[in-house]
Amino acid sequence: MRAITRQEAEKKIEQYRDDLVAMTQALVRIPSVNPPGNYEGMSEKMLELYRAEGLEPVVARAPKTDVEAQDLTFPRPNVIALVPGRKRSPVFCLDAHMDVVGVGDESRWTHPPFGGELHHGKIYGRG
Length: 127
Hints:
The chain has helices at about 5-15, 15-30, 40-50, 65-70, and strands at about 60, 80, 115-120, 120-125. By secondary structure, it is α+β, with helices and mostly antiparallel strands.
């Protein structure tokens, strides 16, 4: 497997634009506001998306006592999916959080915070 150029990456993005938009919308539509920290819906969606790509994701969770000792809500799942590479090749790690801050006064939003609406080529929502 060889590295791809920026032009090749842009071509792939354009090729899969509709899928990327749909996935982003689906993720934005999952309320994962912290606090309280409800991550189950987001972790289930990530598992579904990784499996659709042929990966075998796993969910790692810290023990309940450790989480609650830090005044955090349990469970706090971490979804991990590995893509096998070549020996001695660079390692790429995508690390992201699954929570969002609160929406505040929803009447001040021009689009629903968990709507994932597409307008003029932009996706709107909290995410």
